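hey can u check if this looks right to u? its 255 residues, i copy pasted from the old doc so theres a chance i mangled smth
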Amino acid sequence: MATKIKPAGFSLVEMMVVVAVVSLLMGFAWHFYFGGRETMRHTVSQSQIQLDTRIFLDNLEVEMASCYAFSEVDTQNKKFSFYAFTVTPPHLDDVYYDTTGKPHTTGVDSDSKLSMVKYEYQWKEDGTVLKKRTPGFLKFLQVPMRFDECPPTDDRYTAMEKTVLHGIADFEIKAYSQKTERDGENINQVIVPTTAATIADAAFIVLRLHTKIDEVSEKRRDEELDIVTKFYSSIKLAEVANPGSFSSTDRDGRF
């Protein structure tokens, strides 16, 4: 009796099972691939936001290191400006005497001036932050102080205007004055918010940067960063730390 040979191959049910298992495995692999790619994209983009913000803050810190006084801090319109030395702060003799030894006038109408650069920062509704740099001379004894634009004494401080940040959802800025008060043996630091009329007394500003990029796609995560930083005027800080014994320009007439 002849033996019946069973045909080789897979049945329809076996093929359907294989296709289902392969499709499931490919689906998981596809999901992990695109999920990993999105995570990498988000991480790189978030790192770029942090880098851009850090560069901005580092540059601002360098500028604030030579800050003489704040010109304006407008919380409502999200902008601020300040005057900074372009060279080492001058000796008082150089401020109050000309090259022949003749004293300058020291009243509020004095023409005594300092070589300065004015920095201005302003948040725009499109989420950018605009930076402007203007060289000139500051007539610091006048009330209010007057700044006259002029050609720079150093090519590093030429007039400039550019966008320094993008994707800024909020830009909060506040200014404060700081004074040292003695109560017997106790020394207290009194911090008071400044107004437009008292901005010349400001010792430091508090800046909040809220970076947020809204992603339209539901598969992408929003990119967000929130940083709050304090920046001191170097001159004001020295005066606060050494009340009555430090002055760079003797603006208050103590010397």
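The two ends are 128 Å apart (CA to CA).
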